[in-house]
Amino acid sequence: MVAFTILAGGYDTFIATYLFNSASSSLSLVGKATTGPSPSWISAHPTNRSIIYAVNEISKGALQSFSTSSTGTLSPALDTVSSGGDGPAFATALSTGSVAVFNYGSGNGRIVATEPRDAVNFVDSAPTITFPAPVAPNISHPHMALEHGSELLVPDLGGDKIWRLAPVSSDSYQIQGFIPQPVGSGPRHIAISNNRLFVLHELASTLTVQTIPAAPNGTASIIASASIIPPDPPAGAVFAASEILIPAPTTDFPTPFIYVSNRNTGVLDSRGDAIAIFEHVNAGTHQEGLKLVKHVYTGIDQPRGMEFGPADGRGGEAFLAVAGVAGNAGMKIFKRTEAGRNLELVATNLDVPTRTTFVWL
What we know:
This protein is mostly beta strands. The protein has no helices and 29 strands. A hairpin with a 7-residue loop joins β23 (274-281) and β24.
């Protein structure tokens, strides 16, 4: 038996703990740990996965830390600091020991240091980074952060830019430049693979690929752009792209397929929202592009976050946790098949109707 503990955040006041048995394809809810309000995004410490960070996505946003037991039992909040703004929709633990948290509602964020010997404790001295306001009526909506070397790349859904932050000190970063994105596209989440920058655009429902331009303000043309919207949606469907994942290649999954989630916020599809699978083809040639492999319908309403299991020798990289922010489809586990070209539903748990983000332990 291989059992995986999965933590799942959401728009309520708890983080749920699930147990997934890959041998029996069973998914069980084993507990709910009380947190601050709306722990909608959670992240594990990069070298000590027993330490968990969670946002409080509310108007006076916050960042909290927790510890977990070997069975996934979450402690009460061990420390809490302000996110510096309104509606933090994303947080991630960095290799430096700091935690980046960005506020969707107020166009700013913080890079909060932690104590070197006890990373559950925050060092509450980080300044607030405020992004320049775009042309009215748009406003800045930073939506995630991705480490790239010493930089942090921050897609701004409202500003149609990817901001480039450079460190000034251990807990202080400054804006050094940006990577422009198509006007009105709404860059939401990003990933880097094979020396390429992949951008998922919420407002345009597109996936793009480009080279990574030189810092601070280099530019690079978009090599390819592809719609992620599934074919034949119902009349009245309204799409908003959400998450992008590019798992590292393994022996069983040698091709780094790109998995992106659709969210239909309009008239629902009876099949649920789809995950689109793409392949990055012909890299470095004039035929470089994005090839749609498959749309997989999930039965889920508006999947905001999804996460693959760990590639740590237990086979977790074969499985994908997905849930919706709306509806009552609960949490589902899909298994990669056909070397990653397809997904097969293997487990469902309906005990909690909606979830938004996951950490596999």
